[in-house]
Structure formats: C-alpha cells, structure tokens
C-alpha cells in the first residue's frame, strides 16, 4: 500500500485540497482477558472519537459536546442506541464461541473485531463503505460492496461466506446503509462538529538530529486536520530516495504530529543548502525549512535542545500505544450501527 501511495504521489503530485470525511465504528469482543471489557465499541468522525461504550459500564459515553446533539433532541434515541450496543455485545460474544470451534480452540485469549463505516468526499460527492471482520488479529471476512459478495481469506470463514452470499436481501440492505444511511449520518455529524472538524491549526516545524551520523528529522507537530504532506526536496525536486516517512500520530490535545527522516550519510555538509523540508496543509501556505545546521536541534551540549528529543520520544510512545490499541482495534476503516452478524 505504501508503495502504491508513493507511486501515485510521484505521478500526480501531492493533493491536500480534497477533503474526505469518514464515519468509523470499531467493535472489539474478547474472551480470556480479565483486565479488558468483553465488548468495546468506539465511534469516530474524521478520526476524532465521538462515542465510547463497553460491556462493563453498558452505557454510551459521548466524547464531544457536539456529538450528542441527536440525543438532546431525541432522548429516547440514547436508550435505543444503548440497547443496540447491548445486542451487538451478545452477537459478538456468540461469534467468538463459533470461531473458537472453527479454529479448534478451547482456551486462551481471543479477540473478534469489526470495522464498519463510510467515507464521503465533500468536493466530488463520491462515497465508499466498508465492513470488515477479523479474528485474533488476522483478516476473517469482509464485504465487497461493488459485487455484494463476501471475501473469505481463510478457509474457516468459507461457511460464513456461503451463507452471507446467499442472503441477497441482507446484502442489499448493507449497500443502502453504507451508500446512503451512513453517509447521511456522516454529513450531519460533520455539520454538528464543524467548528472542531473543519478548523485548521498551523504546524510547528523543527529539524532534529541525535548525533552527527544520525538522519536529520523534519518534525511537524500541533497541526489539524491530520491530512498533511511532509517531504524533503533537493534543488526544488521532491526526494524519493534517502527519506523515511513516519506515520501521522495523535497528540494529547487533539492535534497531530509526523516526522520524515533524511539520510545525509553520503551528502557533504557544503551541499546541505540544496535541501529543504516542505510541509503542506490545506488552508495555509507551504512551510519550507532549509537544511541549515544552525536550525537543527540536537542533544549535544545544549540541554534546552533535549526537549526536541522528548518530542520524538513522545512519538515513539505513541507508536507503542498505537500497537497496543491495534491489538484491540485491529485495522483502520469505517460504520455507524450494528453490522457484525458474521459467524
């Protein structure tokens, strides 16, 4: 996937103007984990968490003031949605029991997950929907919305595929849900959360280097939204060699950060002036930072520069945290209601 993205950027260039909104629901059911709820549901809009539910509290907790506007206008809907989540909890608990039999498992810790939702491009109006399920961190079954058939990457899922493929009425319902109902809900939530979701916060850019032989890191932080492009240029041309782009990671305040490494092992310092780091974010002018030794923060000699490496340390911790969450949130995609009747 990274190679494909890189090829597209090489051919078509960077595009930060298109805004693709997303509504995502992650459901995680587990067994054999005493310190983790048996069922967790997390809802997100544009990667901002709006709701949380688990089997221990058995109640919906809204994470944004604007996310509970429907509940304020229709108090009965909160009770209905809570009951839906309780139903999902029982369905997924049964799914784990079925899957343990299919995989010939008797004990141990096991996790069943689903990612459901939709995306909407607010410029050209195109939409896309997803329903994917995983078991113990591996793909189990997913819906191909174009053909309305189910994809089973493991033989244990083939029985589910046959049953679901034959249920044409249910598949048509899912198509309508992901192409219309989910998208309508997403558009409404985007309006509710406009002041949060459609704000722009300018990134702060730093050049960091741990030692003279280490790569120089272009670190952008504090930006919103997360659709940022950060890259290195030499003589005005984007570099695809010598660079190691990192993931966009969340900060504690709801903004994001990202780093892109530049390997200067074979570059004499007198040529550093040919390089620059460029940050592109919709709504602001490009931020260009030249590769000037005077601008590079290091941890050599000046303790004030240690802060820069605290920031990168935070990024490492965020990666670790993301990996832990990934065990329970499996992969990233999108939905908004119950759609996990898989096994």
What does the secondary structure layout of this molecule look like, with pairings?
Blueprint: H1 2-12, E1 20-31, E2 39-45, E3 48-54, E4 61-62, H2 69-73, H3 75-102, E5 110-121, E6 127-135, E7 138-144, E8 149-151, H4 158-166, H5 168-192, H6 194-197, E9 204-209, E10 216-223, E11 228-234, E12 237-238, E13 243-245, E14 249-250, E15 256-262, E16 275-281, E17 287-290, E18 296-298, H7 306-329
Parallel strand pairs: 9-18
Antiparallel strand pairs: 1-2, 1-5, 2-3, 3-4, 5-6, 6-7, 7-8, 9-10, 10-15, 11-12, 11-16, 13-15, 14-15, 16-17
Transmembrane segments: 306-330
Domain Ig-like: 203-288
Pfam family, one: C1-set
Summary keywords:
343 residues, alpha+beta, Murine Class I Major Histocompatibility Complex, H2-DB, Chain A, domain 1, Immunoglobulin-like, 2 domains, eight-stranded antiparallel β-sheet, six-stranded mixed β-sheet, 31% helix, globular, disordered C terminus
Describe the structure in your own words.
The chain is an alpha+beta fold and 343 residues long. It has two domains: 14-196, Murine Class I Major Histocompatibility Complex, H2-DB, Chain A, domain 1, CATH 3.30.500.10; 204-298, Immunoglobulin-like (Sandwich), CATH 2.60.40.10. 31% of the residues lie in helices and 31% in strands. The chain contains seven helices and 18 strands. The protein has helices at 2-12, 69-73, 75-102, 158-166, 168-192, 194-197, 306-329; strands spanning 20-31, 39-45, 48-54, 61-62, 110-121, 127-135, 138-144, 149-151, 204-209, 216-223, 228-234, 237-238, 243-245, 249-250, 256-262, 275-281, 287-290, 296-298. The strands form three sheets. It has an eight-stranded antiparallel β-sheet, with helices on both faces. Strands 9, 10, 13, 14, 15 and 18 form a six-stranded mixed β-sheet that branches. A hairpin with a 2-residue loop joins strand 11 (228-234) and strand 12. The longest helix is centred in the first third of the chain and has 28 residues, at 75-102. It starts with a helix and ends in a 14-residue tail after the last helix.
């Amino acid at each position: 996937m990274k190679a494909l993205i890189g090829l597209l950027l090489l051919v078509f260039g960077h595009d930060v103007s298109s805004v693709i909104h997303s509504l995502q629901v992650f459901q995680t059911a587990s067994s054999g984990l005493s310190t983790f709820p048996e069922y967790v549901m997390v809802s997100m809009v544009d990667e901002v968490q709006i709701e949380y539910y688990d089997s221990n509290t058995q109640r919906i907790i809204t994470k944004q003031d604007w996310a509970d506007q429907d509940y304020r206008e229709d108090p009965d809907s909160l009770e209905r949605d809570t009951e839906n989540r309780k139903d999902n909890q029982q369905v997924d608990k049964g799914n784990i029991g079925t899957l343990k039999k299919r995989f010939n498992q008797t004990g141990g810790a096991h996790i069943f997950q689903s990612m459901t939702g939709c995306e909407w491009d607010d410029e050209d109006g195109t939409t896309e929907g997803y329903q994917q399920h995983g078991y113990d961190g591996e793909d189990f079954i997913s819906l191909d919305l174009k053909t309305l058939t189910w994809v089973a990457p493991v033989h244990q899922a083939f029985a589910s595929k046959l049953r679901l493929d034959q249920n044409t009425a249910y598949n048509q319902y899912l198509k309508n849900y992901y192409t219309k109902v989910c998208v309508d809900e997403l558009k409404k939530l985007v309006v509710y959360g406009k002041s949060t979701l459609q704000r722009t916060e300018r990134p702060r850019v730093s050049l960091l280097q741990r030692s003279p032989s280490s790569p120089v890191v272009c670190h952008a932080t504090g930006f919103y939204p997360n659709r940022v492009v950060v890259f290195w240029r030499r003589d005005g041309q984007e570099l695809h060699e010598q660079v190691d782009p990192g993931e966009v990671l969340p900060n504690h305040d709801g903004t994001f950060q990202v780093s892109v490494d530049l390997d200067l092992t074979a570059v004499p310092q007198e040529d550093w002036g040919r390089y620059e780091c460029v940050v592109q974010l919709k709504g602001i002018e490009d931020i260009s930072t030249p590769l000037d030794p005077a601008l590079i923060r290091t941890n050599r000699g000046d303790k004030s520069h240690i802060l820069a490496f605290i920031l990168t340390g935070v990024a490492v911790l965020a990666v670790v945290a993301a990996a832990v969450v990934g065990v329970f949130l499996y992969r990233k995609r999108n939905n908004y209601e119950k759609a996990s009747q898989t096994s």
